[in-house]
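Subject — a protein and its fold

Tokens — whole-number codes for backbone shape
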Amino acid sequence: MKAATNNLSKTLIVISLFIASSTLAIAQTAISNLDTSGARASAGGAVPRVVKYAGSLAAGQDPAGSAVATTVSVTFALYAEEGATSPVWTEMQTVAVGADGKYTVLLGAMSKEGLSSELFQAGESRWLGIKSGEGLEQRVLLVSVPYAMKSEDAETLGGHKVTDFLLTPEAAAAAGVVQSDLTTRPRADAQVSTLITDNGVSVGINNTTPETGGVLDIAVNNTAQYVKFNSPNPYGLRLGSLSSGAQFLGMGVTKTGNDNKYIATSGNNSLVNHTVVEFNYNGQVRFLGAAHQADGTDLTNFLTPSLLLTSAGQFVVGTTSPETQSLMDIEFTTDKYIKFNGMRFGQLQSGTSFISEGVAKTGADNNYIANTGGSAIANHGVLEFDYTGRFGYRLAAHQADGTNLNNLLVTAFTVSGASDSSFGHMGIGATPSANQLEVGGATNIAGKVTDTGEQVNGNAVITGTLAVTGALTVASCTGCGGGGTITAGTTVTGGTSSSILNAVQTSNVTSNTSSTVINNAFATGLRGYSSSTASTFASGVLGAAVGPDAYGVFGMNVSSGPDSGGVNNNAIGVFGDSASNAVGVNGGTNGTGVWGQADEPSGDAIGVYGQSSSPNGTGVFGYSAYSSPSTATSDGVGVYGLTVTPGGIGVWGITQATASTASGGNPNVGVYGSVQPSSGTASFSVAGLFDTFTASDILIGRNVVGSSAAHVFRVDSTGKGYFDGGTVNSGADFAESVEVKEEKAQYGPGDVMVIDTTGTRRFELAAKPYSTLVAGIYATKPGVLATTHDISDPRIANAEIPMAIVGIVPCKVTNENGDIEVGDLLVTSSTPGRAMKGTDRSKMTGAVVGKALQAMHGKNGVIEVLVSLQ
């Protein structure tokens, strides 16, 4: 084993000596080709400060795919350990790679000092890293050759020459050495080349007298020169000067002479564009840019100013001539816009400028495009400024990004220039035209709105809902078509001790015909007009009240004297007139629909007076619309009339039609009441209800002939009726309301009934022949129904049946005792509830229920029977 180790050691020594001698020879050849200032040998010329290295990389390829020679940028680095991440030295070189992929470089050749001998200390190894492009870094261990540079230290002490230790200037001068100024840093030779000067304080490049205050002073002595950074990249950053005196910093640009031209240079890398920052002697800073151009292209016609900073502190984009007073002046074409945190500023092709949210543009056109980043909760809004003086806001609900919004944006409000110079025109939800203000929807005004009618076309026209919490005054004006007009669902709301809406009429007319009313030729303080002809409810004027003592509509006539005829009968508080099949006055409320009160102690004082000129019209129509009887706490009254005048009338209905009957066969009616439930059964509704609170009669009917009125019927306070001419009933029998043994549903009209001996005043179905307990027949339609109960007792309708004891009624029969002929006496049978012909005279006394008025030839049937118990 020891012999093997000795042999290996000898072999490594031979190989190392061979490599060292070969590398030294190559390095000396390479040194002769270097600049005298770069990687030069020591004063003795013994050890060059470069190391030759040979390696291989991927060769280039021509369009046919064949390997060709190429150049690549390679980064070389020295590491103290194989796995170290931070290098102790690094250098980038442009390497010529042959078609076989091999290359050779001199490490340290890119620096005038070459490789420092301090990099190779005794007892320390060094690893060389090689990295090309985006590929992985290769690492190899350096062997003895680089450490040969350390032999130079044999002639120095701590890196200093012996002459550096001379103490007197005379001794130093005799040795040909200039001592350094001990107040400055150690410096290089006073003049290391024709380009670099080091005075110990500042370093000058292309400048033999660098400024004392600058660490590095680079002079570009003519505008054909420039300073380039990041040299391996052809598009590296360049610093230079134009013949105009402007200084520039450019990326992807170069210069060719003493001119003001920029030339494209990018190594033909299509990803590289061209950027220039100019510093002008007049204090301006310009930012210019151009899209990628081929190398060598004159960029004069391509570079576009993108930003300008002036000496006055102005920020300018899109123009070279900013306004004097502007701190920021941004101008752009109609295919561009400014974006600020989602908000955009731009201009349409039409000349309209806009500010938008969620809206963008795509070109020089008039199109708005949805752009919200796909947020489903974002809508679109545009604020527009028109060159005609129009200003407005448009909005649209959320649309998918990319949607053209032109037909979806709705105008929220618009302010436009006026036809005269005094006033503008504003539209909210509408396009303003001749009116100063046009509102297309609901309007809520919290203050005071006054229209004096003195402006152009002085009507206040509101087509939506107007809610006013203050005062609203509308006055008429000369030549403007009357007073202000409020239409289509106007609501005036407020709380005040005086009138919320006060309309005063000072004129009068001599006619109140339907024509003058409909054509608005009727002098009135407040006019309500419904022009609807549909068969539905419509109201010209509606009054509603929810207070217990409030008025839906209150009308008062305060006339203090008689009219021209000497009477005051036409002094009316509220007058309703229907000229067609409509309603003059309709009162609907939680309490009283229309309240008429006459307090005059003499004359024809009328609480409510209604007049209709139509044969089918209604003078007064009262309607109570409350539809929840389970929650009702009081009476809902359609029309309520009250008079406190002796001989006065609460509600008076009169018909003055001259025809015997109205069209369609309807009678002429003074007062009319009806029950018209919208659905279900109106079991608790009545067409007419009459109350008496004393012993007075409930109802009186009179026949008036001339000036005499004779009572023809009356109903007193006990419910007893008195009729001078008798009564006529549609039923043909007299029946008693009686209790039955079984449930009422077990019986039906025509059943023969007998006395139930197990109860009191109770009856059941007949089920035995010739029963002397027979009592009567279940009446189908009683002419008179008698009862021992109150007429409102629910037992009459729910538990008892009407039993006919006298008269003609339908009766269920059977042929159990043979066919029945007209005139036969009928008795009970064994068939429950049915009568049969009686033939056994010995059993018929007290068992006959009646006589047959019809024959029955068959098993069972129903015939008319004259009830006559015997």
Q: What stands out?
A: The mean pLDDT is 74.
